[in-house]
Write a structure and sequence with these properties.
2 domains, alpha/beta, 7-stranded mixed β-sheet
């Protein structure tokens, strides 16, 4: 398994404690999740119907402000796994550094993969991949710049897993253009990563192929019921966006007091430059707070945002020590 956040098993092996003892800030998952409420018995006991799946697709179209075809998948990662099957192996270029699963999945499927540093270098690829906003540094690319790439690549995949809080970046409204494919994550903004729900949005030909590859029941009944409810709850989304914006300011101030420099991030995670990220991770881990470090960048430390006030207090005390 490639290096990721959320690897609490490693944290426990090194620093002890039960999973429930830890504050996991190593991911960009909202720690104040959408209130699930009651889930019907049918969601657990019956196979999802086509009508129910289509209702989820309509809810996603409403939330992402698009009329383009949508298909639900079991998390954005499931869509990444299917990408190599949309077309035969060819030249793939990935705007990097970024989420490491793209290169790994494509290489395993026989693609010629090249990581590039600037968007213009994507030109000429059969498959070009941009994460927008980027993980882990939050780098953002304007819509017009990405649309300008479309005629210069075979297919452009834009991963918008962290775009819920920056809707002006989203190309979902343009996703019915041939050659453009948008991936969205549900679990990060809504704080329900364990639900395993995501979406691919694009031209009908690509979405039909995704649907065929995903099979008749790509997501669970519980994911459909909760997903529909959450995606339609605009009041919760607005209140959560406002809270996360305030919390970013709070976390940045705490990091600045440690002498850490903000490199970038999104409203769901922050990336800091530290003198020694591994040492900082270890110090926080002694208080059972887990963070994300990067082998290739020994000064980078990524932190998600604490949820409850008790979590904020624990982080402040750990930093003070």
């Amino acid at each position: 398994m490639r290096e990721h956040g959320g690897n609490l098993d490693l944290a426990q092996q090194r620093f002890g404690g039960r999973a429930e003892d830890w504050i996991d800030l190593s991911t960009g998952i909202n720690r104040v999740p959408y209130p699930v409420g009651e889930v019907s018995a049918r969601a657990w006991t019956a196979l999802p119907s086509r009508a129910e799946i289509e209702a989820l697709h309509r809810a996603a179209q409403q939330a992402y402000r698009t009329d383009a075809p949508v298909v639900a998948v079991s998390g954005a990662q499931a869509a990444i796994q299917l990408l190599p099957q949309l077309a035969g192996p060819g030249r793939a270029r990935i705007l990097a550094p970024t989420y490491n699963e793209y290169a790994g999945v494509l290489c395993a499927a026989g693609w010629d993969v090249q990581e590039v540093a600037e968007p213009d270098a994507l030109a000429g690829a059969d498959l070009a991949i941009v994460v927008n906003p980027n993980n882990p540094d939050g780098r953002c690319h304007p819509r017009k710049d990405l649309l300008a790439l479309l005629p210069r690549v075979g297919r452009l995949v834009v991963d918008e897993s962290f775009a819920d809080l920056i809707p002006q970046l989203s190309l979902a409204p343009e996703a019915d253009r041939p050659g453009l494919l948008i991936l969205r994550s549900f679990g990060k903004f809504y704080g329900l990563a364990g639900l395993r729900l995501g979406f691919a949005i694009g031209h009908a030909a690509d979405i039909d192929r995704f649907a065929a590859m995903s099979g008749p029941w790509p997501v669970s009944g519980a994911a459909i019921e909760i997903g529909c409810r959450a995606l339609r709850d605009e009041a919760w989304a607005e209140a959560t966006s406002a809270r996360l914006a305030r919390d970013c300011v709070r976390l940045d101030a705490m990091a600045h007091a440690q002498g850490w420099r903000l490199i970038g991030g999104t409203p769901l995670f922050r990336l800091y430059e530290t003198p020694n990220a591994r040492a900082s991770q270890d110090e926080l881990a002694r208080s059972h707070i887990w963070s994300r470090v990067f082998v290739q960048e020994p000064t980078w430390l990524r932190l998600g945002l604490p949820g409850s006030e008790a979590e904020w207090t624990r982080l402040a005390e750990a930093l003070a020590r």
